[in-house]
# Entry
Amino acid sequence: MFASVEYCTGEYIWFHGDDELPIVDSALALIDMIRKDVADFFVFNSAMINDEGGLLSSRMSPMHSLHLDMQGDALIQTAGFVFMLAGISNVVLKRDHVDVDVAWEAQAIAPIYSHVVWLLICFSKRRCRIVNLPLVFYRNSALPKQVQHFKKLAERLGVGDDYFWGLGVATQLEYLVNKGAIQASSVAKIMEGRRDGTRFRLLNECVHRIYTQVLTSITSGETRQRIDPETLKRARDFLVSCDGFTYDLFEPIEKLNEIAFGKRSRKELSALCEEYEQTLAQHSDDPFRNHWRGQRLGFEIFSMPLGWVAIDPEIEGGVQSALQYIDIRENQPYVWVSENLEDLLERLQAHLKTEPRNIDCSNKRADAQIIKIGHDLVEIGRFATSEYARMVQLSLQYTMPIRMIARIFIYPVHRLTAAGGRILRKWVARLSSD
# Structure
């Protein structure tokens, strides 16, 4: 792919994968946009098919408008890193802006997604357009087949099975930050897509892959699965610099890595895994928390890549349903969008003056929070009860030998005392009758 650039003579380049099916109408629309010189880099919202050609999804990411223009960090935050940009058939780029030397340097950093690193360095400061058309039917093999493919590649390269999506991605993101292609604060805001249209944070997935590789190194004992402590520390320091809360996830991971190197007891494995899973669940519950900027006038305020957004918490489907879209569309009175925060708040205040009923949404929000707190307290109560029961069981197990020995000595005395009591009562009864 990189070597082929020197053979290209056209103004734009389209790397077409050998197993994707092109869509002619979208190609014609692309030609029209190229003639109008609207962008230097195009990303298409392609449809996904399986190996047999069956449709998996009509588009990669939920989107309202026909196209969306952006540059800088907004590109990686919206198009993602391992999803839309990773599909080489989804992108068309201006040849004059590419640097093949950067491509080979990116390839040396990590093999998988090196082309995404290359594209972001070359085009993050250029005119970029995400087009809500499927340029191709992008072929996406079944997960077991993909896993087997990359596992073979990992074995050949001598790296862990999860390296490409864990340490590899962390290294590539750090490289992009050092190159000035993206900001460190943007890493925590990179959103990836699923086939069902929902989105998740790349940062969480990256950390989870590191965790999975550490677990594999413990269970398999393979040398290639092991993560050198210094390498793990570097990944931790970088990702924590992007999102401070990530430290909570790495604390159990580092202890698990000590188990892998025999520096900590394997008896701690279960407890550390449970600690990590609970922390990850809390982090993953709200993927847009790094975009959240507080509550104003009863609305949830978010700083999104393309502007400020205010969402009524009572919106049907929940706040996250509105944030799933790459281009969040204004839907009054529930969703408000503006380029700056001051304008957004002024519009909300003007609206609330004419529609005072919406002021009640703050009370509804408080009620919802009270209900959520109630649910949380119930869950805490259940957890405490289960932990108490578990501790009681452990206590019973640990004290069983002592209780058995005590019963050996105490039981005969107890029986003798009981028998003596019965004889004494009979003797007293007989004396009373005489």
